[in-house]
Specification:
The protein has about 775 residues and is mostly beta strands. It has a domain of about 400 residues: Distorted Sandwich (Beta-galactosidase, Chain A, domain 5), CATH 2.70.98.20. The chain is about 10% helix and about 30% strand. The strands form 6 sheets. Strands 9, 10, 11, 12, 13, 14, 23, 26, 29, 32 and 34 form an 11-stranded antiparallel β-sheet that branches. The protein has a 10-stranded antiparallel β-sheet with strand order 15-16-17-18-19-33-28-27-24-25. β3 and β4 form a beta hairpin. α1 packs across α2. The chain is globular, with a radius of gyration of 27 Å. The protein binds copper (II) ion. Copper (II) ion (CU) binds next to loops.
Length: about 775
């Protein structure tokens, strides 16, 4: 039960204050500044510095005092070509936008939906060396709305130039947080809405509404307007208001005007589920003295003290992470959440630094619900493109979300009014040790050798957690000492907070035989609706250089010839280098297994195989929807579990895609002044980032992983090095991989996996 609409602000508010007084609480929590147009420079200080668009991003004086180590964002400067826009740069971009002719006439009417670094071209980034080269010119791409129109603009922050870029043909930009928050209040401005709430015997103060993206279902639903649907819940008696839907009540709102367009009210006979036993807060089970009502032992994370010399990793210049031979650039992104770039690893045999991934990130999350009825059919969320995966990532909770020795990284994002704000502690980096063994071997007495080798499994994790309405996604990028990178997407709890449907039924004995419920009766008056979660990753692999090929290794039965062998059959691997995009569109089949390798055909291992990485989809699923079903057309990137895209498509700018309400096909453009090429057709969102997509099952414990396709003899020998030699032995393994030859230019791998609907169980 995931979903995503929503305003994290509301959730925070509910968590902090319990239910109640949504509007009033929300309004006061905004800490409205005296003047919206106060100088941006003061944005970090005091209540007056908070913009009304970033209520949770404001730093309270208390927070500042408790984190004196934190570098000042106001004086931060970019130090790497891929560093995200700084506070100063965002402010600069804002000034440029507001002075740009179309917007200068009414700058306060300008809404910034996205503003991000326009990354320099890959060759320039790969060439760049700290200290030896100046930073490439800093550029940005902005997606804005102004007087009912979308605009995409290229900003040259150094030269102070603004140039318009082509605007996607369909769809709208990611909603701003400000919009998502304001939309929660929109229904209350409509007397008919208030009347129907009262008719149900619900207090308006107890009602919380969430903006739910619409998808795209044809022009008759579109009308050229930026629309959204709002559905509401009763917060009475529980923080888990998601369990108390006011079913069948759907409010269509025009996002540009904030006005209610239409109200569909078909659920009058459906009771609001009871609040009893729905509260997930720990304190809800406590007695007055703070102990658990039933005497359950409270389990706390064991403390894991860093070594006296400090944690085993360093973060240099704010974004460059180094650990156990690994080095990568890490940053927060409003849309993708976190982005790992320029991941390289040191070869234990030669000491040389070897490239692995140029850029990797979540490109889209697609969550279609499987209920075609009026109040549910449109629930086909794109959590990244519509809501902003990074925008929804809340500050991590030290010691509970990340262990004691973790270090934290902030996100600098842009509010709708163009001002920068800081999302503190959005990413954490830490060494993980969970008691597992990375490698071991003991000799048996048979050989007479006294060998007992064992290395603890210590990994490095970069983590974020996005709270998209009721749903919390934890994304871990985990780096191993043997060269493996594992991307995990999890929800933290087996029993999460569900997006449920109200029903008149309180027991299965009331349900007619063969009645289609589109889900499971979880509790009295509550149905958990079947749905999918697809998380798509784009992995732009640069294994030992940018010249990589995508190889599919098909495994099939080979029959022996009569008399050839006592065996009648064996498994034979056949390698195909993808030469077209179609070649690298993978649909996984259990009895037609395959492996997926990204190789560098120009670089060979000692025995002559090309080096490469294997991309391993873990926990996969394929969409069962009709390919012509509107949600599936939008989410067509889920048609394949692994997909390679041509290099040319990898050039997509960071913010050029308009996902909200986009039709199946949309367009994106490269966002760079002077290099704007013709528009390229591609699927929105999933492949927007170009190259690869991996669909990950959100509910599986671990998802896709990239790892060496196999172990080279060199790495094996290094593993066998006695631990008494210099340095931690478990850090000496090789990422090199033997693979097959071939040529072809491509960029990435991918994987995917996704989930069939999960049937959740409600508490109570
Ligand atoms: Cu779910």
């Amino acid at each position: 039960a995931p979903m995503d609409y929503s305003t994290s602000l509301l959730r925070l508010t509910f968590l902090a204050l319990g239910a109640a007084l949504v509007l009033i609480v929300a309004r006061s929590a905004f800490r409205l500044p005296l003047a919206i147009d106060a100088p941006a420079a003061s944005f970090l200080h005091g209540a007056g510095g908070c913009t009304r668009f970033s209520p949770w991003a404001c730093r309270s004086p208390r927070t500042e005092k408790s984190t004196p180590r934190r570098p000042s964002h106001e004086s931060d400067v970019p130090r790497h070509p891929l560093d995200p826009l700084t506070v100063t740069e965002v402010s600069r971009a804002r000034d440029l936008l507001r002075a740009h002719p179309p917007f200068a006439s009414a700058p306060s009417a300008l809404a910034v939906h996205a503003l991000a670094l326009d990354e320099p071209d890959k060759p320039a980034v790969r060439r760049w060396r700290k200290g030896a080269h100046a930073l490439p010119p800093r550029r940005a791409v902005a997606v804005v709305r102004f007087q009912g129109e979308s605009h995409v603009l290229a900003l040259d922050l150094t030269a102070g130039k603004v140039a318009p870029l082509p605007v996607p043909a369909s769809g709208y930009p990611t909603m701003t947080m400000d919009e998502q928050t304001a939309l929660c209040a929109a229904p209350f401005s409509d007397p008919a809405f208030n009347a129907t709430i009262r008719r149900r015997g619900v207090r308006l103060d107890d009602v919380a509404c969430l903006p739910i993206s619409l998808g795209w279902y044809g022009p008759e639903e579109d009308g050229g307007r930026r629309l959204i649907k709002s559905q509401c819940y009763s917060t009475e008696g529980t923080a888990n208001f998601y369990m108390r839907p006011i079913e069948g009540l759907t409010v269509l709102v025009d996002m540009d005007t904030g006005k209610v367009v239409h109200i569909s009210d078909r659920g009058a006979g459906i009771p609001i589920p009871a609040a009893k036993n729905t509260d997930y807060r720990g304190a809800a089970n406590d007695d007055d003295d703070g102990t658990d009502r039933f005497g359950y032992q409270t389990v706390r994370a064991p403390s894991m003290e860093p070594a006296p010399e400090g944690p085993g990793f360093q973060i240099e210049d704010g974004h460059t992470v180094r650990w156990a031979g690994w080095e990568f650039h890490l940053k927060a992104d409003a849309r993708a959440g976190l982005i790992v770039s320029r991941a390289t690893v040191q070869d234990p045999a030669t000491g040389a630094r070897r490239e692995v991934i140029y850029k990797g990130m979540a490109s889209e999350l697609f969550v279609p619900y499987m209920d075609p009825t009026e109040a549910w059919y449109f629930k086909t969320y794109m959590d990244a493109g519509e809501y902003g995966f990074g925008l929804q990532a809340m500050p991590l909770v030290p010691l509970n979300d990340c262990p004691r020795h973790a270090r934290y990284m902030d996100g600098v994002f842009v509010a709708a009014d163009g001002r920068p704000y800081v999302r503190e502690n959005m990413i954490c980096v830490f060494e993980r040790y969970a008691g597992d063994i990375a490698w071991r071997h003991s000799e048996s007495p048979i050989t007479g050798m006294d060998v007992r080798e064992s290395r603890p499994k210590v990994t490095l994790v970069a983590r974020m957690a996005a709270s998209v309405a009721n749903y919390d996604y934890i994304v871990d990028w985990e780096f191993q000492t043997d060269g493996l990178i594992r991307i995990k997407v999890r929800r933290p709890q087996n029993v999460g907070i569900l997006m449920v449907k109200g029903t008149p039924y309180s027991h299965m004995n009331q349900v007619r035989r063969n009645e289609e419920m589109h889900g499971t009766l979880l509790s009295e008056n509550v149905i958990g609706v079947i749905h999918d979660h697809y998380v798509t990753f784009r992995l732009d692999m640069d294994v030992d250089g940018a010249d990589n090929s995508f190889v599919r290794v098909d495994m099939a039965r080979q029959d022996t010839a009569p008399g050839e062998s006592p065996r009648r059959s064996y498994l034979k691997a056949t390698r195909h280098v993808a030469s077209t995009e179609k070649d690298a569109r993978v649909r996984l089949k259990l009895y037609e297994p395959a492996e997926f390798h990204v190789i560098n055909p120009t670089k060979k291992t000692r025995v002559g195989n090309p080096v490469g990485y294997k991309v391993v989809p873990a926990g996969t699923a394929g969409s069962l929807l009709d390919p012509e079903d509107p949600p599936q057309k939008r989410g067509a990137f889920t048609n394949n579990q692994v997909k390679r895209l041509p290099t040319t498509r990898v050039k997509s700018g960071p913010v050029g895609c308009s996902c909200t309400r986009a039709k199946g096909r949309t367009r994106w453009v490269r966002g760079r002044t002077g290099t704007v090429r013709s528009r390229t057709r591609t699927w929105c969102c999933g492949t927007r980032w170009g190259s690869t997509t991996s669909l990950v099952r959100r509910t599986s414990p671990s998802c896709p992983l990239c790892r060496p396709a196999s172990t080279s003899s060199r790495s094996t020998s290094s593993r066998a090095t006695p631990s008494s030699s210099s340095g931690p032995p478990w850090r000496r393994t090789s990422p090199s991989v033997p693979l097959l030859p071939e040529t072809m230019h491509q960029d990435t791998c991918v994987l995917e996996d996704n989930p069939r609907a999960h049937w959740a169980v409600a508490r109570g």
